[in-house]
Amino acid sequence: MPPHLVSVDRPGPGNPGETMPDALAPASRPAETVLALSHIQKTYGSFKAVSDVSFELRKGEILTLLGPSGCGKTSTLRIAIGLERATAGEVRLDGRIVDAPRERTFLPPEKRNMGMVFQSYAIWPHMSVFENVAYPLRARRRPAAEIRDEVTKLLRLVGLEAFAERRGTQLSGGQQQRVAIARGLAVGPDVLLMDEPFSNLDARLRNQMRAEVKVLQRRLGIAVLFVTHDQSEALALSDRIAVMRAGNIEQIGSPSELYRYPQTPSVRDFLGETRLLPGRILKREPDGRVTVELDQGVTCVVAGSDHTRSAPAHTKCLVAVRPEHIHVEPVATKPHVAQSEPNALGGEILALLFMGNCYEASIKLADGTAMNVTVPPGPEWREGGQVRLRLSPEHLQLWPAAEAKA
Amino acid sequence: MTDLALPHAARARLAPEPGRILFWALVGLVGFLVLFPLVALVATSFQVGTFGRETTFGLANWIEPFQSRRLGEALWNTLTLSITRQAISLTVAIGLAWLIARTNLPGRRWLELGFWIALFMPALPVTMSWVLLAGGRSGLINIWLSDLLPFLDGPVFNIYSWWGIVWVHLVTATIPIKVFLLVPAFRNMDAALEESARACGTGLVRTVWKIVVPIMTPTLVVTALLGLIHSMQAFEIELILGTPAGIDVYSTIIYAAMKQEPPLYGVASVLSLSFVAVILPFVVLQQWYVRRHAHGVIGGRFSTRIQDLGRLRWPLFSVVLGLILIMTVLPTIMLVIGSFMKLFGTFNMPSIWTTRHWQDALARSELGRALANTLKLGAGSALLAMIAYSLVAYAATRARHIGGRLLDFLTWMPLVVPGIVMSMGLLQMFLQVGPLRAIYGTMWALILAVVIGSMTMGVQIIRGMLLQLNAELEEASWTSGASRLRTFFRIVLPLVAPSVIVVGLQVFATAVSVVSIVVLLGTGPTQPLSILQLAYLDSGKFEPATIIGLLILAIAVSSAVLARAVSDRFVLSKG
């Protein structure tokens, strides 16, 4: 991230490892584990796709594997269902070992009671919608009458009962998506796996499908393992998120936990936006507050999480803030006076971008760098106008300056 | 369908545990069928003595043929004839493919269909029609020319010659197969490259030679090498046109050794093995080249706007149409004429025409029997090929371990082994392996030979289709709880069915007209039309041979047209 960008944070406990009670978390916390992956590794030749991944999927929750492409999230998902075999580690489904290379145990995907929704939907073009959904039941040799009832019920569930006789290829993207979900649910699986299921839909439809899937999941109480690279999708949909990078899980927790208390720079940057301000530690207070001298020439008190492992004074550091926590106010004159005030930066509006419900302001800071901040719509903003940016200490986090980018 | 030469970048995602035992059984079976004929040839090559009597093991067979000057000449002829044909046909086919794929040539889709039909014109009947037209002094063209220009001395065009062989090859499969392979490649080329050249003031012909050809070089090299490999294996045309002129090629001297009384199996085996050794370097070169250049060949979604030919549009159309008519309609007419002639190819008699040959042929039982055999052979081969090729293509595509590559390698073997050699090897296999002896003399021997012979083409076409299928379609079936076998029959097979049917029809057309690979197997009661025709030709009975030729032509061309219709309707519309 470019050094000229700044950021804020919400008030929270100083020690980041702790979790706060969370409104979005499922009510039954110690729910039973449906699917457990422990120390999973996957190598292709000399390439390590998954280095060491462990997590548990609990009954009735949506757990999302989130990360950039190539981070090993899809490999992990495919190992969970058995489309790939792990190189090392163990997969348990309902307590039963289904993949353990050391014990030479492997249960192929067709024998695991799991449903999967593929990125391409994988709707078979030579079959009708009805036949697509009926396929898993036919493969299990259920009686014809039962299949008819079950498929009708499933199609009603996803709102496609009128399309039963259509071919899969005659449906729109969103409808194909629903067929794929109905098919994934057909055998009443313990777990539904979804591999980037919304990435082929347009933005409006994607939002609608997210809501539908969550409502459906809540209604059925099924456990869902979800894979995406889209952070807003992960935040909106998940009960818990596991952020992956380079074949490892960086952090796992509820969306608000991850958003508010990221443990690593990559989690911080991947979820939501962050502005970073470079500086140098001045002194540490006994109550945990840290005073930083920013490169902008002002001092700044940080009361949020400290990720510098209590680095001593004069150490270079970064102050991180979420853009929504930067409070911008117009000022009449050039901010000579304001310079002395702590936790306040002077700047000039270079350009205003009208976004409908707000403005996005591109602000030039004292040292000449630019930063984008959103401000509420109003007549007080004008291009070329002087502003002051206030950063409240509780919303600021302290990070070490030398960040390993990789 | 260009996949014959171009392996796709296969998707890495593959199946978990395949049915290993089934898989290795398949590898073993395919390996046995394509490799054992060669092993049998090696064994036979060391048997010295007359066939049918006491034989001993020795090296005599390996010494004798190499002392003969005939072998050296045959090798020289094989190479020079092949290279000449490839050089000419490639040049012509580049122009034709470009005209069809990239320009506003009138009726280009129909012209493409014309080349497709030409591709399936059976070699023997077409050769006979050219004998009628240019067979020495009595050839129709030569008679006309000498009437027109009485000062000419002797025939102008003699089909029984080195250039005669080249010509008949060019107008049968050699040019059409290249058009067929190059048109899709030209379609995928970015039109902007041509347009910028035209915008710089370069003329049409210069644009093709300076821009189009260099870009297409990888495709052209692969096509040329494949063509060379096929050319060297050619048999029937050389046998009919080369033998009277004293021009031997490798395949015909093997045939000659086999047809001696008693047959020189040992010598023929040695010749066959050394023939494989001559062809092998070209196959290795072709595979090596494909592996190195595969990525440059397949185009993305580019602009495919077409070139305006301007005033040249209709003249070029007439040239292309003329070529197609020479390849398809002219031979057909000549065969019809030939079948009504009292004495085949003799136009300077007082009364030329008769319907006697048709009456004779229809009255004769052997024609009916051969026709039945041909249909049995065609249908049997097509059915077996469709099942076997799809299984093999599926196993080779989806098995990620070393076995997948091994299986793929095995399917390329029939390309290396010339038809006449494979025929020889299969004959030896049937004679030497006890349990297989029961197959010899039945229709199954011929069916097996045809299915092995067309394996490379058929498997590669289905494989190309499989590689285009999204792997998730199969995975969705497994995660739905279906077994591998159920997935193959319920999901994979229906999805590739159109390609499989096209392959089946192509195999049918091949089986109807094929000569080289069955020539040593189809005797007596199992003799199909093509071999009966060759027998008539061998014994100088040209008139009934013409009638058989017409029958073969009709069957082969109708299945080719049917294949085209299926692929246009189902395969191409999918993309």
TrEMBL record, chain A:
Source organism of the structure: Propylenella binzhouense
Protein name: ABC transporter ATP-binding protein
PANTHER family cross-referenced by the UniProt entry: SPERMIDINE/PUTRESCINE IMPORT ATP-BINDING PROTEIN POTA, SPERMIDINE_PUTRESCINE IMPORT ATP-BINDING PROTEIN POTA
Family statement: Belongs to the ABC transporter superfamily.
Entry's Gene Ontology molecular function annotations: ATP binding; ATP hydrolysis activity; transmembrane transporter activity
Pfam families in UniProt: ABC_tran, TOBE_2
GO terms classed as biological process: quaternary ammonium group transport
PROSITE patterns per record: ABC_TRANSPORTER_1, ABC_TRANSPORTER_2
InterPro entries xrefs: AAA+_ATPase, ABC_SmlMolc_Importer, ABC_transporter-like_ATP-bd, ABC_transporter-like_CS, Mo/tungstate-bd_C_term_dom, P-loop_NTPase, Transp-assoc_OB_typ2
Keyword Nucleotide-binding: yes
GO cellular component: ATP-binding cassette (ABC) transporter complex
UniProt cross-references to Gene3D superfamilies, sorted A to Z: P-loop containing nucleotide triphosphate hydrolases
Record's keyword annotation contains Coiled coil: no
Stretches assigned to the ABC transporter domain: 35-271
Keywords: ATP-binding, Nucleotide-binding, Transport
